[in-house]
Amino acid sequence: MNELSLHPQGEPKQQPKSDCRDLVPTEGPVVVDTFGGRIHVEWDPTAAVTPLGQLPFFTDYLQVSGLFDPWVEQCPVQ
Predict the structure, then answer these.
(1) What are the residue boundaries of the structural domains of the chain, listed by start?
(2) What digits encode the pLDDT tens for the residues 11-56?
(3) Contact 57/26 with Cβ under 8 angstroms?
(4) Phi, psi of 47 (to 5 degrees)
(5) Does the predicted TM-score (pTM) go above 0.70?
(6) What sign results for the dihedral spanned by CA atoms 42, 46, 50, 53?
(7) Closest listed residue to residue 63, CA positions, set 75, 73, 71
(8) Which residues sit opposite 30 in a β-bridge?
(9) Residue 55 to residues 16, 25, 39, 41: CA-CA distances in angstroms?
(10) pLDDT at 56 (0 to 100)
(11) How far apart are CA 5 and CA 56, in angstroms?
């Protein structure tokens, strides 16, 4: 019988980098630029959730990339 797979296997597993600094928590607050000014985000490792989640970093992305104004212009809500 010929085995035919209709589902792709996916990406190959990669070995983690030995010097992966992106996953290391930082000490103290992280500075994030927003439209309202600069804020300092500090993580509480004992909290189950954060009040803002990843919103400050998304706001920083929108500001730095210049995508906010076109995003608002394309919004169908008025």
Answers:
(1) 28-42+51-78
(2) 667 765 555 555 566 678 888 888 888 888 887 778 777 777 788 8
(3) no
(4) -80, 140
(5) no
(6) positive
(7) 71
(8) 41
(9) 27, 18, 12, 10
(10) 83
(11) 43
